[in-house]
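This entry is listed below:
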Amino acid sequence: MLNYLLLTSLAALVLADLEPEPRYLEADTFGEKVVGGEVARPNSWPWQISLQYKSGNSYYHTCGGTLIRRGWVMTAAHCVDSPRTWRVVLGDHNINTQEGTEQYMSVSRVYVHPNWNSNNVAAGYDIALLRLSSDASLNTYVQLGAIPPANQVLPNNNPCYITGWGRTQTGGQLSAQLKQAYLPLVDYKTCSSAGWWGSTVKNTMVCGGGGNESGCQGDSGGPLNCNVNGQWVVHGVTSFVSSSGCNAYRKPTVFTRVSAYISWLNSIMG
């Protein structure tokens, strides 16, 4: 049995080591988001976006995402599989302050992967595309994230960073400033082995972190930025963590592996 709801208490599922249970990282519900990490240099991840939903007359941050074309944002399916009024904020650093670098875009259409099943995150397909109402203006603060070639798989311990506005400690507040945390990649053979995630993790996913000192920092939908030959490439979309705690030992953060979905992304974006 897998549990996909964010829980108010980490103690609620102490059996996660025996039976790994994924937990999403959305910011508008309960649960813990981030352990570790550091505040990023402002606009040093210029493809990172804040996905916000409207409630009343205000917008609230709920997930991250990646600007991959001027009119397209990639995020997690579970962030956008319920009908809401969305907007995307580009070029942001402090989500509580207007710094003059932001671009605010409404979302004209949401494309959730057709095989996504909200009752079974372990099946994969936790990926979605957002069509922006207009194209972003690229500048120092807003850039496109590079995505990998189809089916590229990075080696164990490849250096990667997760970025997002997630909580700075268990039960704490969302970080107003964009944070980053170093999550070295864990290869599929290791991550799917007994004592790690086992069969919960599929080969269309990628794992990062899993050590005692690693952060698990960042919201669902945001990028896993991996260094590939000196270039930052978005190899993952933040999907879930263990219900026993953010980045519990040998339960690294699990991401949708972007390189497994290149043909789907291209079929939607044209």
